[in-house]
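re: ur question from the group chat, yeah i did fold both. here u go
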Amino acid sequence: MHVAIAGNIGAGKTTLTKLLAKHYKWSPHYESVDENPYLDDFYGAMERWSFNLQVYFLNSRFRQILEIREGGKNIIQDRTIYEDAHIFAPNLHAMGLMPNRDFQNYSSLFKLMERLVSPPDLLIYLRANIPTLVGQIHKRGRDYENSISIDYLSRLNERYEAWISTYDKGNLLIIDVDNLDFVDKPEDLGSVIDKIDAQIHGLF
């Protein structure tokens, strides 16, 4: 089984991935943030590094999906390949931070990959408002995220909502995380697990 968690920067994807992997004994696949050679440069000069960054993420995510397919394990994945293509790259293009030819090249590459990609059995979308996202970003204190603007997060949130409203590739569970604390409140994590259990039982 393949479960994936989607959501904006700071929504709590990595935290929930860790907690669910532990609870269900699933094998976690994380977004390669620490090893990413472009992130620092990107947040310092988005227009210069947007294409490089998005191709790196696309490559990394596609490799993950191939490993998931070949591994035969129960997997939980932190962020999906669809978010790169439907949210982050189009947003950079719309903001004038990715030139037309780069965006067209990127989109063509994604469409090619998508033909070889199976969607997750269950997609969990973490919905969060801007104050929640900002609070979480500041809390984790990654230097390269200090320059993320409210406008950038707002644009991403709008695209997430538009994408989720038309998502039809498989089972979808939407969790509003504004008033949840997975880490310090076991009852909050328990309520999320109950919802996931209901979804999983419906798959079989």
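okk and heres the other one u asked abt
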Amino acid sequence: MESGMNDAIDRDLSRDVANALCDAEETLAVAESCTGGLIGAEITAVPGASDYFDSGLTTYAYDAKRRHLGVSREALDEHGAVSEPVARQMARGIRDVTDVTWGVSTTGIAGPAGGTAANPVGTVYIGVSYGGPWGSEESYATVSRYVFDGDRAAVRAQTVEQALTDLLAEIDSR
């Protein structure tokens, strides 16, 4: 994949996310593992991102996920970092520690090594969490599993695009 092509696609998605968040007067924070800050970079590439983007944490190591996001030792030990429970806890954790409306998380195996039969290289979990008003009982988190093709850069680029797509779909569904 050509970098320029990805940038155009991602930038359009970033603008769409920006417009949706601004229209709803909502805020966003991201917790990234396999994407290493790329989602935050795409979000902040849009002028005016400070109106809706709070922060991004790159929590690559187990201990960083536990320390900064409240991901439980049990989830990490039982399921591993690349799992639905960890992606869900990361998305909820970033939403809650930053006190934003939306939290997005990514955890996966970008390669070239590290894959297993259950989670081959290219496996990524993307979490999206929503923080509803207190007392509304509307807060929730969703997680989707994807398996992307390509080298490390391609997997990471596809993860960024899919995370923005998933977030936009959740914002639009509210």
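fwiw on the second one: Residues 3-24 form the longest helix (22 residues). The first strand starts at residue 28 and ends at 32. idk if thats what u expected
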